[in-house]
Structure formats: structure tokens, C-alpha cells
# Entry
Amino acid sequence: MYHFPEGLYTDLRIETLFDTKITFKKEKLQEQKVRTNKGAFIRVFDGNRWYYSATTELEALQEKIDELASLATPNASILEHPIVKKFEVNVDTCLKFEEGDLSKIDVMAKQELLRGYLDLLEREEIVHHSSFYVDNRITKEIISSKGTHVIYDRQTCGIRLNMELVSGDKKDSSRASKAGIYFEDLKAIRSELQDEVDKSIAFVKEAVPVVPGDYVVLMSPLTTGVFTHESFGHKSESDFMLGDPNMKKEWAIGKQVGSPGLTIIDDGHVLGNGYTPYDDEGNKAEKTYIVTDGKLTGRLQSTVTGTHLEEGLTGNARAMNFEFEPIVRMTTTYIEKGNRPLKEIVAEIEKGIYIEDIKHGSGMSTFTIAPSRAYMIENGKITTPVKISVVTGNVFETLGEVDALSEEFELLSFVGGGCGKMEQWPLPVGFGGPYTRVKKLTVQ
Amino acid sequence: MKKEWLVIKEKETTVKVKTAKVEAVRSKDIVKKGYRVYKDGKIGISGAIGDVPMAQLEKDATENLMTDIAYPYALTGDKKDHRNYNASPMDAKTLLEETEAILAFFRESYPEFDYSEHLSVIEHSAWMQNTEGLDLKYEDAYFELALILKEIGGPNVFDGFLSYFGRSFDRAKFIEQSKAFMKGYLGKADLPEGDKLPVFFIGEDSFNGIFSRSLNGEIYSTGSSLFKGKLGETLFNEKLTLSIWKNPVQNFAPFFDREGMTYENDKLPLIQKGKFVSVFADKRTSDLYSLPYTGGATGDYDGLPVLTAPTLGFDVDTEDITQVLEGQKSILVVISSGGDFTTDGDYATPVQVSFLLEGTEIIGKLPEFNMRSNLYDMFGKDYIGTFESPYYIGEGAQLHGMWMKIN
# Structure
């Protein structure tokens, strides 16, 4: 074990990373890579300033700890410091994926699985395609001078088929993908992938430019997830409140921020990209109700933000990898399902837009969604596919414009990509929700 | 068996800023190694993070030959070029002193805002060698400043940012420049009249994606490029030259690609004076689609060379913003996040933060608005020019000007 210097708080996070990447370009194997790496991130706190070090020299961790400690000023009452007091002390080993361990699956089985889906792409309109199998498995060990010693594992895998499509003069690029946790999750997805391929082909053939304007917008569970993440998820990351004492009043718990019936949750227990049973400070995951029935009921915290805001910890201090320090991030963020059938919600829309799939989103005071597949809704029916550059809305107004949530509900993970926050991109996150109707968004 | 290896070293000291104060000091010293072996027209790869012996990586790459991945192309060889662009980077002590001084200035002069994020000194090297005589080494070190501004009492997560990127740093110049930007952040301005206004983008991030996709040799040859069938045609304004850009002076990145390709003057035009003269193609794409080999391979440190998106850069083609606008007020975009092009080249984006300009003088912050256009118009009839940035925001920074529809 490690010797932690007197008068300082110290923690370290050791990560063992396994990942596989297999790529086909058309029918040819382009790349097959399996790698295992290890790295560690060390933090030392003297009550005034933090000292961090990222390293791959695991045999020299004690030296690195001592090196950081030499920069700090020992503080005899460090254990009484409010931040240090706030850290949870957890001792747990939570190796959930030893059975079904992706690193134990033969790489040739992974290649064969992917190869088995390539025939779905043999279509006249698909002029080129690249296909990917990816997986990753991480084991994290978090040890602190306060006594935390947590070991847990997480893993995800996925298939993604990227398509270049042409129909006459019309062109598009699209994808069909499916994320999973176990290898078996990717074995019976042929019909799902087929459906996505068919929709992509129909879209390139039939899509017309949208007439820009304000529309009623219906979002799929995938789009709802990104909308939730961008529109209010980032707002709930409490580190932005630290430098502004007014923010606690502005974002007071209990404030009405959305329509009645709207509930937004962040939950690190959900298996998938956002699974974080312990955050990167060793604090336990919570199911955090950020918005309940339209009212602000919680926000996401690290130990530092929880201390300054005098609020409870939520297990949301996450780092992109061992090269970075944990900061406040989402885990799996979603809108809770509603109680209305989708059919009924669509039937009520005289003229609107349905966003089924997206390329990316962003969130400031104006959030954005760049759709990859969207359709007109006319007289209660989903009709013509439309090409849209971007859909925008105001964060402060849009949650109040949500007027219908379906009983159909889905939680998802992307294959690749993730959330970006300053220098830390991409961090895997989960997302999802019901079909969500918003009364007005700007479509261009 | 032919062998090739790449060693990337990243050494960094970062001062993290929170609530306008130094919150933390982070150090990082990481080595990444990639190894490739070539035998009988096949390639095997391996790699590791950390100082793993080359003999181990060679063994792993040799085992990886069993994956049977074809790579029947001649290796680039007989080429030695070692370059160091900054042998005397700022040290950690100076970095901390600079940070403290800058934060003290902002806390005192502009208490209306909270400041967070980081200042870094990053030392970076990439060394690619092979058994055919390739020996390319790039070493560099640069200073990076990124400060997020949040208006105290405002509802936003953040309201703007200040940044600088370069091999040297002049604090006095940065502070003078910041005063001009802060005048903008503190002053309110109205959008000028008119449906179409001159707009300046800082850097090319907003359009690199559509150009990279449309100029990709593989996408072009298979027919899904926006520029399909237009090679040799003049598609854009005759001032415009866009190149594969491998000049570390502006790029802060290696002058060679992941197959060892280098360029005369470190660039290769793809659009020259408005004319579409070439797509980009790595060895595989060049062979498969009978395209001229231009280079442009990217890839992970331990991966195969792939053709995705090499860095593209614009030639500076116009000198004086004030002169070219002839008194017309214009817009400087600071943050336009989330916009995109459709596959037809139509472009739309919200502009979250922007300033009104008179010449190059910042007058005030504009309200949020949306703007749109089309790639051919933006870089065709509505193109104003690419300018060296008149602002102290980074070495080699550019502004791209064009008339945009405002709504």
C-alpha cells in the first residue's frame, strides 16, 4: 500500500483499460486492434491548493505522491477542512462484469460478428461504407488517505455501420448502430440495423429542404436524451455556480423551471455509457432528481461543489480518463416517461417536425440539435423527410414548452463520441427518455 | 520484414483556475508508442501508453500480422528532417506567476465576471522512423490560455471566453487586447440594419468539417461528396486558396502525416484561387481509386494510417478589414455553437456570443441571433476574405469574412 504524507489529503485513481477496435471498409478488414494500458491520476490537497499528476509509471506511484506532496504545504488540521470532511469513505469491490468480461472474448469472434452484418449494406444507394466493432472495459481502483478503497469495473461494446448514400443527385451520410454491455447484446440486432439502413436509404431518396421557421417539435427518445443533456443537464452541473453567489438564489431548489409533469433524472447506476457506481473521487452514485414535476429539486455535485454549496454529494465527479482530474459531469441523464401513447401525441400535431436521429447537440443559453433524420408532421401524421441544419431553443423557456411525454420510453448509449466539457472530450454518457413534444422550437 | 515506429511525448503543466483563483496545478508526462511491421503485403500494428520496450511492441506487431490486413504499399523512406520549433518553453514557475498576475488584473479590473479554466505549457514531440530510412522528428512547446467568463448575477453557464495560443506570450499585449474584448463584453450593441451582414469567424472550425468531407478522395471517388464531378472547376471566389496545411508554425502539430508524407512549403493546395484542383488521398485511397497521392493520413498513435480529416488551412488573401468594408459595420463571431451544414451545403447556426465591429474596433456585445447561408455563397460571391487576425489571440490566428443572412 501507499504511504500518504502527513498533513495532506491524497487520493489516487488507477485505471486498467482494455479496448478493441475492428474496422471494415466495405468488405475489407481495415484495422483490428486490441490494447491494454494502465495509468493513474494522483491528487494532493493542502487545504489551499490541489496538486495533480497523471502518469503511466505505476511502479513509481509512491514517488509521484511524494513529489506532489513536496509542492504542497502540510496542514495539521487538513482532516477538519470542509472539503476533506465532505469526502465519503467507501470500501467496496464491485466487479460486476467478471462474468461476460469483454476482454475474454476472442477477437476473431468479434470480427466475425461484425462481418456478419456487412451484407446489410449491399444496397445500390450505399456507395461506400465503413463498419466498426468497438468495446472497452475499465477497472478503476480509487484509494484515498481518508480510507476510501473502491474497486469497480465497467464495460460497453457496440456496432456502428457508417454509410455514404447517393440517389441521383442527392447525397447523404448516415449510420446504423447499437450499443451494448455484453457481447451477447450485439448478436441479435440484425433487424434493428436493417431498419436503420432502410430508413437511411428512404431518407436520401425523399428528403427535401425544410422551410425554416418555428415549429411544434416531436423528439424521439434518442433526441429527447440529447435535448435533456444539452438543454438542462449542463445547467445542473453545479461547478458553474461556484464563482457567483447569486446563482444559488437564481437556481433555488423548488423553482419552477419546466412544465408540470416534467421530471429529469441523472443516475450513475444505470448500466451503459453512464454507469458510474462510484465517481472518480470514490463517492457513491446517487439517483438525482434534477427536476421533479417541473420544479428544480437537485443538481450534480463533486465534493468541492457540494461543500461550497452546502448540498449533498451525488457521485458526479468524473474524469475523461486517467490523464485528467474529476470535474462535475453527467452520468445517465433522462426525462422520466409520461403516460400518453405516442400515437395520440402525434395525432394532435397539425404541423410540426419529428426529429428521429441527430448528428450532434450543444448547450449554452441557446441549445442546439443538428438532426440527421427528421420528418414533417402534417395533420397528425409523420410524412415527408426533411433536411435540417439546426434546431434551436432557449434553455430558460423550452422546458416550460414541453407539453406531452409518451409512455414509450428508452435509455440509450452512443457507439463512440460522448460529452465534451472544456478540455475533457469525449466522456461516455447515457441518455434517453420518452417521445417528447415541445410547443415551439426554431428550425433552420 | 520492414518496420516503422512512432513515439509521441506529451509533457504538460497546467494551472487550473476556479473562481478567478488558482485552484490546482496539474503535471502530465506521458509517452505513447506505436509500432508497425510490414511483410508480404500485410501490416501488423501494436502500441502502448508508457515506456514499453520497442522489442515488446515489435513482437506484438508481428503477432498482429495474423489479422491478415493488406497494406501492399511502398514505405516512405530516405527522408530525414528534424525540427524543433521552441527549444525554450516557459517553465512551470513562470507559468504560475503569469497566471497569478493575469488573474489579479481581471479580479481588480473586471469584477463583473467570474473566471475559470486553465493556462498551460505543453511540450510535444512526435518522432517517426522506419527501416527504409525515414527519420522525421517534430518538437514543439506552446503556451495556451483559456479563460471562461461568467457574468456575476447572470443566468448563463458561461458568457464568453478569452484565449491565447502561441510559443511566446506577452502579458502586456494580452492585457491590452483583453481590455478591448472586455469593452465588448460590457457594452451592449444592436445588430446593424439589413438581412445580410458581413460576419467574421475566428478560425475555420465552423467549415473544416464540410471541406474535409467534400475533399476526401474516398468520399469523392465513391460519389457522395458535395463536389462530385466538379474537379477542375472554379467553385469558389477567386481569392480563396485552401490547402492540406502541415506548417507547424501555424498548426502546432507535426509537419508529416502518419505515412511520413511531407510537403514543399508544408502545404498542398486543394482549392487554388477558387478552383477545385485536388482531393486528398493517402496511399491506400490513391491506389484504390487511381488518385494522385497527396498524403493526409491520420490515425491513432498505435493504429493504421486512415483517411479522415487532415488539417486544412486557408491562405491569407486580404490585408485590411477596415479598407475592404468601406465603413460598413460588421460582426465578429465569438461563439457560434451547434450549427451545421446539410448535405446540400446549406448552413445555419445560432450565434450565442458576438461583437459589433467598426473596422476592427470592438463596439459592444450583440444579442443572440441566427444566421444562414450556403457553402458556395459563403466562399463564393459572399466571401470577403481571409485575414491575419488583428487581435492578439494566437500565433497564426486568422479571421474569415463573409456576408451571411441574418434572422
